[in-house]
Design goal:
This protein has helices at 86-90, 113-116; strands at residues 35-36, 40-45, 51-58, 60-65, 70-81, 99-102, 105-109, 120-123. The protein is mainly β. It has one domain: Structural Genomics Hypothetical 15.5 Kd Protein In mrcA-pckA Intergenic Region, Chain A, CATH 3.10.290. It has a 5-stranded mixed beta barrel. Strands 1-3-2 form a 3-stranded mixed sheet. Strand 4 and strand 5 (70-81) form a beta hairpin. It is elongated. It starts with 34 loop residues before the first strand and ends with a strand.
Length: 125
């Protein structure tokens, strides 16, 4: 089980007094690492009974053009730059803040594809 809670051990190797067993509330998941490709997604249950849609790959984005003030669907060609991790650029992995090349021009992703299940982006002028 992947957890998001503090380790039971200190950096010195000693134990914390208030250490407790793992709980479902502490559960974490592996990153979906959304790539460029045919759209694949999976619906999962999140905390509180809410749903999350994990997007594993996508080849389309909802692109906002600030000049015309309208959204349009654009085909994703490749990842140009990913400030989250420089190795993601080479592997075509998309996260929030990634600059992608589309058929309408370069755009910056404004949503979290691995958590929200879609890709919204703003054209860079």
């Amino acid at each position: 089980m992947i957890t998001q809670k503090r380790s039971r051990r200190k950096s010195s190797g000693g134990r914390y007094k208030d250490a407790r067993k793992k709980r479902l509330i502490d559960e974490g998941r592996t990153a979906s690492l959304t790539k460029v490709g045919k759209t694949r997604a999976k619906k999962i249950r999140a905390r509180g009974g809410n749903d999350k849609i994990k997007l594993f790959s996508s080849d389309a984005a909802n692109v906002f053009d600030s000049k015309t003030r309208k959204y349009s669907k654009a085909k994703i060609i490749r990842v140009v730059e990913n400030p989250a991790n420089r190795h993601h650029t080479r592997r075509n992995i998309m996260t929030k803040g990634t600059i992608i090349e589309t058929d309408k021009g370069n755009a910056k992703i404004t949503t979290r594809p691995g958590q929200e299940g879609n890709i919204n982006a703003v054209l860079i002028q």
